[in-house]
Design a protein that fits this description.
- The complex is a heterodimer of chains A (321) and B (359).
- Helices cover 73% and strands 0% of the residues of chain A.
- Chain A has 321 residues and is mainly alpha-helical.
- Chain A has a single domain, classed as MetI-like fold.
- In chain A, helix 8 (201-209) packs across helix 9 (214-243).
- The longest helix of chain A has 37 residues, at 73-109.
- Chain A is globular, with a radius of gyration of 24 Å.
- Chain A starts with a helix and ends with a helix.
- By secondary structure, chain B is mostly helical.
- Chain B folds into 2 domains: 2-108, no CATH class; 137-353, MetI-like (MetI-like fold).
- Chain B contains 14 helices and 2 strands.
- Chain B has helices spanning 2-7, 24-42, 49-69, 72-106, 112-116, 137-168, 173-185, 190-205, 212-236, 240-248, 253-280, 285-290, 309-319, 322-353, and strands at 122-123, 130-131.
- In chain B, strand 1 and strand 2 form a beta hairpin.
- The chains are: A mainly alpha (321), B mainly alpha (359).
- Chains A and B meet through helix 2, helix 4, helix 5, helix 6 and helix 7 of A and helix 4, helix 6, helix 7, helix 8 and helix 9 of B.
């Protein structure tokens, strides 16, 4: 995209079609276009301002509202943030290797006749609504993975992650993480695939000509070239996993702000988003302002993650150009 | 075909070293599958054990064989190839599983009565018994109205922003800011959009306000970035020559945009808008927060709670009775069908309106 902007010279606004020459119609139209753009800036600022205005009461509300998990906003939000990050990290640990594998398959391993349909199928995964994943995760996957979790508890119980009483329903933060992993696979795959495919052909051929195997070619030509792209894809996936609501809400039947490393018990930490979805009550001012406050925390956190991801991408693009 | 592909190791090792036969992967995978099936049958394990066992056997046997006959580097290469193929096979499992499960569980419930009733009790005309509500009509209407509202808000804003970015804002600081923030906007958690709508209306109309239009506003916040990006990309593809030809005829810039740039990129823009709609139509969290849920029909976008299809699925899921789970699956199937139709529509429209390249 950068390339196209630089290639096409800006003839339109300097030449005969320039806005000042044709008076009113043009001025109105360009004003409308600029106005629409500004609406977006205003909307984004408004999200922040309204959450702040409505949520600030939640920063020092009645301690009863934070009970039983915490007594003030900071520890309440911190515990929820822990759950959010935990679920997202589980999802990333599972999804990233698969995303890189699938992206490599599409870009370098698959026969051409297979690559396009497979890429389409992975994109199709992104089209399935999150509520359907939640339903499937809560009703089907949790049930099917229960024996596996029991096995993990029996044999790997000495690890802190798998200790404690194994949940009999299987609806644990681990399963929520698996569902999240499935949901972020498409976006991470799509970005990795794109950067893998942009590896200069000559680098790859040079590696092969020196006698490298296909894996060595990928390791020494493709990966170094696409490192920042992979980071960006992972960060974008992380941003999505942090904000995803339904999968976690529906897989975890109940859960509150909680700090625990036990992944397969019945006591599961809620995430910020799932906590909002399960606690939100339009009629109660107190709880609403607390939840809006946590929503603000989530917004700022994901904003930062996405911002960093975009900055990495932009820097990588500049380096390549 | 695939086996042959799997085997081609583009390396120069064949000049000086012995290599495995071309069909080596197949010669390992087939016995591994057979062994897995045999063991699974004999020990009466779950059938899932068979492919897992076969995969483990393959990733041990093939590299070992390669290590003995070829060399260490070739063995590593084969191991990675196996892992990549394994990754793609595992990654496709959830897709097939979700779709199959939804169809199997949802199809029996999906009927004319399901599509035309809401969740209120109604009288069975034959047996004169009161039947519990089991319908989705109210949710279907709500989803269509709210999504339509979101489209009405976000398409003009998104389209005009794209026009600004492509035609007027080249190289300007404002344009760079808008591009950056549109990128960031794609990452807004959907529930935050819902909270924004709730906070906005609470501030204006007081606590406890619920209406469909709040949902439309929340969804449009999620939809605008997608519309801007796709429209922008499409308009950048319009050749400069077309614009210059129009300017040369003395046509003002805005007429050029309306009569030349937009018609040329119309196919892509419609595709983008349709895909954006198919993305937001399945959003649950913002609607749950902003619109709430309701068991009866509400046609009025501007007053009161409304039911929507995703929230309907969630509500039925939370009721946790077998009948309600069935209704939830049927709703999920309906939602997937709608999303798939929209996706298909986007592709077809894109094909139809694609600019003609030849003469």
């Amino acid at each position: 995209m950068k390339l196209t902007t630089e290639k096409a010279p800006d003839r339109a606004s300097t030449g005969f079609g320039s806005g000042t020459r044709f008076g009113l119609g043009d001025r109105v139209f360009s004003g409308m276009a600029l106005g629409a753009g500004l609406v977006i800036l205003v909307a984004l600022a408004a999200v922040f301002v309204f959450l702040l205005v409505q949520g600030q009461d939640g920063f020092h509300a009645d301690p009863k509202l934070y009970a039983p998990a915490a007594s003030n906003f900071v520890s309440y939000a911190a515990k929820l943030l822990f759950g959010t990050v935990l679920a997202a990290v589980i999802a990333m640990v599972i999804a990233v290797p698969f995303a890189i594998g699938v992206a490599l398959f599409i870009s370098h391993y698959a026969p051409r006749r297979l690559a396009v349909p497979v890429a389409y199928l992975v994109d199709l995964l992104a089209a399935v609504p999150s509520v359907v994943f939640g339903l499937w995760g809560g009703r089907t996957l949790a049930h099917e993975l229960q024996p596996l979790q029991a096995w993990l508890g029996d044999h790997l119980g000495w690890l802190p992650f798998f200790s404690g009483q194994v949940s009999s329903t299987g609806r644990t933060i681990l399963v929520a993480g698996v569902v999240l992993a499935i949901m972020i696979l498409p976006i991470t795959t799509a970005i990795c695939r794109e950067v893998f495919q942009q590896t200069p052909r000559l680098h790859e051929e040079a590696a092969l000509a020196l006698g490298a195997t296909r894996w060595e070619m990928i390791r020494y030509a493709v990966f170094p070239h696409s490192r920042s792209g992979i980071v960006a894809g992972v960060m974008l996936g992380l941003g999505r996993a942090l904000g995803e609501t339904m999968a976690v809400t529906m897989v975890l039947s109940a859960g509150g702000p909680l700090v625990t490393w036990h992944l397969i018990t019945s006591d599961n930490p809620a995430t910020i988003a799932s906590n909002i979805a399960s606690q939100f009550n339009g009629e109660n001012v107190g709880i609403q302002s607390v939840l809006l406050g946590t929503g603000l925390v989530l917004f700022v956190f994901t904003f930062a993650v996405n911002f960093i991801a975009r900055a990495v991408v932009t820097r990588a693009e500049r380096k390549l150009a | 075909m695939s086996a042959a592909e799997l085997n081609t190791v583009p390396s120069a090792t064949s000049f000086s070293h012995v290599r495995l036969p071309r069909l080596a992967p197949l010669m390992v995978i087939v016995p591994a599958l057979a062994f897995g099936a045999l063991l699974t049958l004999l020990l009466s394990w779950n059938w899932v054990a068979c492919p897992i066992l076969a995969f483990v056997l393959t990733i041990i046997a093939l590299p070992s064989w390669s290590l003995v006959v070829e060399n260490r580097r070739a063995a590593t290469n084969r191991l990675v190839t196996c892992l990549v193929w394994g990754a793609i096979l595992v990654a496709l499992v959830p897709l097939v599983w979700v779709l199959a499960q939804t169809v199997v569980k949802g199809a029996p419930e999906l009927s004319g009565s399901f599509l035309t009733h809401d969740m209120t009790q109604h009288l069975d005309p034959v047996t004169f018994k009161m039947l519990p509500g089991a319908g989705v009509a109210h949710a279907l209407v709500g989803t269509l109205l709210i999504t339509l509202g979101a489209a009405v808000i976000s398409v003009p804003i998104g389209l005009m922003t794209a026009i600004y970015l492509v035609e007027y804002g080249r190289g300007k600081r404002v344009a760079r800011w808008i591009t950056l923030l549109v990128d960031v906007m794609t990452g807004i958690p959907s529930i935050v959009a819902g909270l924004f709508a709730a906070a906005l209306f609470t501030l204006i109309f007081g606590i406890g306000t619920h209406s469909g239009i709040m949902g439309s506003i929340a969804l449009s916040l999620l939809m605008i970035p997608t519309v801007v990006r796709s429209a922008e990309e499409m308009m950048r593809l319009v050749p400069m020559d077309l614009r210059e030809a129009s300017y040369a005829l003395g046509v003002p810039k805005w007429r050029t945009i309306v009569k030349v740039v937009i018609p040329t990129s119309l196919g892509g823009i419609i595709t983008g808008v349709t895909l954006a709609i198919s993305r937001v139509i399945g959003e649950t969290a913002p609607l749950l927060v902003a619109v709430g849920s309701l068991d009866v029909m509400n046609h009025n976008l501007f007053s009161g709670r409304m039911q929507t299809l995703p929230v309907y699925i969630l509500t039925e899921y939370k009721k946790s009775t077998p009948q309600d789970y069935d209704l939830a699956w049927a709703g999920a199937l309906l939602l997937i069908i709608i999303v798939m139709i929209l996706n298909l529509l986007a592709r077809v429209v894109g094909k139809i309106f694609a600019p003609k390249t030849g003469r």
